[in-house]
């Protein structure tokens, strides 16, 4: 089956300005699927943008399936950055006969793009599509680190209507999916009054990383090492405060500011490890003056900008480009190793595999902050090191 079977071609006239695009704008820099489906193997594209027009499992946000074309009208009017972009817009995946059909289509598209070394940018649709985005990694036979930007965990009662997932329960499906290839889950920006305590206990028991919105109030750069650890990222527009992004029926008064959301998107683009990203739950029906469409377009612009500014310092080779730091624990149980990139000044910690767990590697690398290193220098074990070691057991 060809990828072209899943897509509806685009009519650029629908999102082009009346006077046409300027030569500096992305509308004249990107390639569009209009009549003949592009040869993705022959043409060296870096990034593929496509929409998914399915909101059947989006809870209380019907209409978000119309998001892709509203996004395009804003995104392609933006100017290209200081790089030569190689972007292909594949059009839209229409809603299948059932929601499961849509999931299969999205899974296959994302999987094939990753195999071609093309980073998919998914414009949804409901956030339940994160489940299909995750399933794409099953055929790649690799462990997955998932990062979700959301005000909630989407981990509640099981769906009672027979659907594959819902936008507020899809995480259940990911956690229970067999075979289980989820190594780590991180939530960025949850708001405690939206999260029940049982869910918090589940996250703690599984040694997952969950971070309250307030942790980043003074310094959004604290999200960088969390995002850098992701293979895939899912961004719920509802995680942004309603004053900055009102186009979501579930939007609330608190959340990230627009500029913070753009920073997170840029960190995702800069991550050498990240291979897919999805932006979900943007609902044009609630978009006053197109403000949220503009913000989403700018977030994707920052992701692209980050992509073309990747430092390519992961994996950590050659060794001459890195500095090794050692720290001894107060209890005398051993020392911890940290790595700092000379290119980017970014930090990683080495967490050793327990004996007999891995035959090929001696340690697992985890992105961290300088503060984790200073904690270790003071003789204390960073919490991130301990949680990671527990997952390796």
Characterization of the model:
The chain has 393 residues and is an alpha/beta fold. It contains 10 helices and 14 strands. The strands form 2 sheets. Strands 1, 2, 3, 4, 5, 6, 7, 8, 9 and 10 form a 10-stranded mixed β-sheet that branches. Strands 11-12-13-14 form a 4-stranded antiparallel β-sheet. Helix 1 links the parallel strand 3 and strand 4. Helix 1 crosses helix 8, helix 2 crosses helix 3 and helix 3 packs parallel to helix 4. 45% of the residues are buried.
In short:
Helix content is 26%, strand content 20%.
The assigned structural class equals alpha/beta
Please state the overall shape, judged from the principal axes of the Cα atoms. Answer: globular
Write down the secondary-structure element order: EEEHEHEHEHEHEHEHEHEEEEHH
How many helix segments?
10
Query: β content, as a range?
Result: 15-25%
C-alpha Rg (nearest Å): 21 Å
**Head-to-tail CA distance between termini:** 40 Å
Q: Summarize the main sheet.
A: 10 strands, mixed
* Low confidence ranges: 159-163
Question: What is the helical fraction, as a range of percent?
Answer: 25-40%
How many beta strands in the DSSP annotation?
14
Average pLDDT: 93
Describe the secondary structure blueprint for this structure.
Elements: E1 7-8, E2 31-32, E3 47-53, H1 67-75, E4 87-94, H2 99-115, E5 119-123, H3 129-135, E6 144-149, H4 170-176, E7 182-190, H5 197-205, E8 209-212, H6 224-228, E9 232-236, H7 258-270, E10 276-280, H8 291-307, E11 322-328, E12 335-341, E13 347-352, E14 363-368, H9 370-377, H10 383-392
Parallel strand pairs: 2-4, 3-4, 3-5, 5-10, 6-7, 6-9, 7-8, 9-10
Antiparallel strand pairs: 1-4, 11-12, 12-13, 13-14
Helix pairs in contact: 1-8, 2-3, 3-4, 7-8
């Amino acid at each position: 089956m060809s990828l072209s079977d899943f897509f509806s071609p685009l009519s650029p006239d629908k999102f082009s300005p009346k006077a046409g695009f300027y030569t500096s704008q992305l509308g004249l820099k990107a390639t569009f699927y209009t009549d003949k489906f592009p040869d993705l193997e022959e043409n060296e594209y870096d990034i593929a943008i496509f929409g998914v027009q399915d909101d059947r499992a989006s809870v209380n946000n019907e209409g978000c399936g119309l998001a892709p074309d509203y996004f395009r009208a804003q995104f392609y009017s933006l100017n290209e950055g200081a790089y030569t972009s190689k972007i292909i817009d594949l059009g839209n995946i229409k809603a299948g006969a059932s929601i499961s059909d849509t999931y299969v289509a999205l899974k296959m598209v994302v999987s094939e793009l990753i195999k071609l070394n093309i980073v998919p940018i998914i414009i949804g649709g409901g956030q339940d599509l994160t489940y299909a985005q995750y399933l794409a990694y099953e055929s790649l036979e690799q462990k997955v680190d998932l990062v979700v930007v959301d005000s909630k965990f989407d981990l509640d009662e099981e769906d009672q209507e027979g659907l594959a997932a819902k936008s507020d329960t899809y995480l259940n499906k990911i956690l229970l999916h067999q075979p289980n290839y989820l190594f780590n889950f991180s939530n960025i920006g949850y708001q405690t009054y939206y999260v029940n305590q049982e869910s918090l206990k589940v996250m703690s028991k599984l040694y997952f990383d969950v971070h309250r919105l307030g942790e980043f109030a003074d310094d959004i750069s604290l999200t960088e090492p969390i995002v850098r650890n992701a293979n895939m990222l899912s961004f719920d527009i509802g995680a942004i405060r309603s004053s900055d992004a009102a186009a979501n029926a579930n939007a609330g008064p608190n959340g990230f500011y627009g500029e913070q959301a753009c920073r997170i998107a840029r960190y995702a683009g800069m991550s050498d490890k990240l291979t897919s990203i999805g932006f979900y739950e943007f609902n044009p029906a609630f978009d006053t003056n197109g403000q949220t469409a503009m913000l989403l377009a700018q977030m994707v612009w920052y992701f692209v900008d980050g992509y073309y500014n990747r430092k390519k310092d992961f994996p950590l080779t050659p060794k001459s480009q890195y500095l090794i730091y050692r720290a001894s624990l107060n209890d005398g149980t051993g020392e911890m190793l940290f790595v700092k990139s000379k290119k980017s000044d970014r930090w990683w910690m080495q967490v050793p595999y327990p004996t007999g767990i891995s035959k090929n590697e001696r340690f697992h690398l985890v992105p961290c902050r300088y503060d984790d290193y200073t904690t270790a220098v003071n003789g204390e074990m960073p919490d991130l090191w301990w949680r990671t070691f527990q997952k390796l057991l």
